[in-house]
Amino acid sequence: MKPDYKNWMPKGMVLTAAAATAVFLLLFVVFGCTGILSGTLKTVLFIVFLVGTVIGLGVTLWMVLMYRAFSYNGKRQMSRQIIEGIAKHVRLPDGGKGLDVGCGSGALTIAVAKRNPNAQMVGLDRWGKEYASFNKPLCESNAKAEGVCNTSFVQGDATKLAFPEGSFDAVVSNYVYHNIPTKDRQALLLETLRVLKKGGAFAIHDIFSKSKYGDMRAFVQKLKAMGYEQVELIDTTDGTFITKTESIWMELAGSALLVGRK
Question: Which CATH fold would you assign to the domain 78-261?
Fold first, then answer.
C-alpha cells in the first residue's frame, strides 16, 4: 500500500480547463470557420471563440506543467521537496504535540510525525470543495500507508482555531493562508501562533508577497518585540525549495519560510 498525497494542482481543475478549451475550439470551428453564419456576427464569434481557445490552451498548458512539477511520482517532485524541507525545521520534545494548519492530504503532518516518533501531530483542515479529493479518510489512509501511528486529523477553521492558547509545542503550515480571502493575513499568522506554547517552534511556508501579506520584514520585527526568538523569514525561491524561474512561472514569487520560537 502506497500513500496518495494527490496533487496541489488538482487533476479535476486540469481536466475542466482542457474541456473548456475543447468547447471553445469546437465553437470556433462550427461558427467561425463554416458557412452557418455570415457577416458581422460570424466575425465577432470568430474572434471571441479564437481568443477563448488561445487563452484556454495557455491555461491548460500551465496547469499541466504545474501538475507535473507538483507530482509526488514525477521527476521534479517539488511537493515532496517542500514538505521534507519544512519538516526538517521542526523538532518536538518527547511526549510533545504539534499542529499542522491546512493539512490537505496529510503530507506535512506525516512528515513531521515521522521525524518525531515520540510526539503527536495533529493535522487540521476544512477540506473544502476547492480540493474535493482531500479529506480526513485520505489523511488517515496515508498515515497508515507510511506506517505512522502518532498522527490524528480534525476538521477545523484556520481563521479561528478551536484550541486554547499554548496548546502545542510546534505549529507548521504550507501554502495555506494566501488562499484565505482576507485583508489581514498577518492576523491569521498570529492566530496560529496563539496556540503555540512558550518555547514552542513554528515553521510556516507561504507566498509572503507584499500584495498578500504587507510588510513581512516589519512583521518579523513585531514578533521579536512580542518576545519571539530566532525569528527568520527564509527565501525559499533561491533553490532551497524552488528556483527563481519556477517561482515566477508558477506564480509562487514571494515564497518564504517563516521560522522561529515563541
Answer: Rossmann fold (3.40.50)
